[in-house]
Structures are given as C-alpha cells and as structure tokens.
Amino acid sequence: MFENILGQQKIKKLLAGQIKSGKIPHAYIFMGQNGVGRKYTAFEFAKILNCTTNDFAKTDTGACGKCLNCEKISKNLHPDFHLIDFAKQAEMLDEDFEKQKVLKIGTIRNVQKEVATKAHESKWKFFVIEPAEKMNAEAANCLLKTLEEPPDNTILILVARHKETIPQTIVSRSQTLFFQPLQQDTISSFLMLRHSLSAAKAQEIAALSEGSIEEAEKLISGEESEGLSLWLKLKTKDMYISDILELSRSMSRDREKAVEYIDAMIAEAKKDFRFYPKSAADSLDLLTKSRALILQNVNTQTVLDNLFFDLKEIKDNSSALKI
Ligand SMILES: [Zn+2]
Q1: CA-to-CA distance for 4 and 274, rounded, in angstroms?
Q2: Which tens digits make up the pLDDT trace of 29-47?
Q3: What is the pLDDT at residue 286?
Q4: From the CA of 145, how far away is ligand 1's center (Å)?
C-alpha cells in the first residue's frame, strides 16, 4: 500500500496497519513542510479505502488507480472526496484566488453541512483541509463541532505546516502524523524519472531542495522556462542568420550553462513528440549529439552555430510540409 508515495515509510506502515485492522481515526493532522507528500498521501488514502477492485483488509496491494472511484479521486472529481483549500474557497465565495489568506467560517460551515449528508458514491467520505494552520478562530471552532460528533466512515485530514495556530481542542481529537523532509536520493531518483534529468543535475537540484519535491520542481521550472523560451524562439520565430550567430555567441560564453540550456531544450523537444514525431525525433538527435560534443570539449560556439542552423532547417522543413 502507498507504494507511489515517496519516502515516509513510518507513516505508510502506520496507515496500512490501521486500514487492515479497521481501526481508523476520524481525524488526522498531516504535518510537515510543503512538497513532502502530505496531500498526495491523503488522496491515496481515500483511493485505498474506496477502491472497488481490492479488499484491503486482506491484501497489501495499493489502490488500483483505474476503477471509477480511484479515477475520480485522483482528478479531485469524486463527490465524497472534498479538498478544501484556498482555490475551493475562492470558488465557493466567488472571490479572487489571490485574496485568500485565511480559511473562513463560511467554508468550514459548508464542510459541516456536507459531513452531515450521506456518502454519494462510495463507502468512505474524505475531507482534506489545507492549509489547516490558516483557519481563523471562528472557522476552527466551527470545525471542532464536527470533530466532537464525527459520523461513521468519515475521515477528516488537516494538512498543516505547523500546529501552533490550530486549537488544542482540535489537536487532541486528531492523530498527528509528522511528514519528514525527503532524502536527497529519493528526490534525485524522482527527478531523473519524472523530469528526465541527468543524474548529476538531479543530485544538484535535490541538494538545494531542502527535502521538498515542490522546491525541487520550482528550481527546475525556473531553468525549464529559460529553455522553453529559447526553444520557442528557435521553433516559431523566423530568425535571421545574424540572430542565430548572436545567440550562439552569447550562449557559448558559459559552457556549463550552454549544456543546461540544451538539457532544457531536450525536455521541450520530448514534449513535441506527440504532435510532431518526425521533427521532434530529428531535433532530439541533434540536441543530444551537440550536448555530447560540448562535453567532449569541442568548441562550444561552433557546436551551437551548427545546432541552431540545423534546428532552423528542421523547423523550416516541417512548416513547409504543413502547407
Ligand atoms: Zn480502484
């Protein structure tokens, strides 16, 4: 169970034990920094209990991920799975998302109302409240009433970074699980697999991520967006020869940076496979060869000049084909 949750072995073991024994608390606090799997674990928990293809009291297998319940929960479209966060509150109160600073009583009243109704499609109802430490006092008091008389087969998960602002009366009625920062190795393997990063790059980012996947992905997207804009420039803009020479001259000043740009362009080229398989394959071939040449100490500017002209040619040919 919980195979697809990174790290957090203790928590996974504890939850699996509770699921198997049927002794499941009504309320949890999933505590820890962002990007360590708190919310993801809540989704997985709901899928395991509501999956229609396995009897989890008897097996160690996780949720199937494919049955209707699993699928709807994954997409946050299940009528018995409620993610209550700033986005949801903005939608409910018809306000701007940027304006959401605290979780308000109106939002928690809606939770209360929904808790009181019967499950629509599955056995277990889930309410995941995030960021729970941002409930104001009124909202927290309102939630306490629900916790005092929790209905059967209803699980409330408060996802929080800390519990200083959560009233003790709520904390004492909940089981707190402490999510630890993830190991660097765990993060770097994830980055290699999910973002196709090289081992060296993945380790470099993992070291800066403070144990958080969210932080790691922010670091990547910063770099990817530079690569993306370069890629789009090459792909869509009709560049003059002088532009190309200028671009390769400025990029070749820093060899390592040039390799990073090429990595980011490789990631973009991979995304193009679905729509332009032929030109994506040709581009990837060029990019990987150029990357290797730079790493073999061939003159960076020469490699980049050739790369950009060849990429331009692929682009020109593929747009000619479209006509
Ligand atoms: Zn399922």
Answers
A1: 26
A2: 999 999 999 999 999 999 9
A3: 94
A4: 32
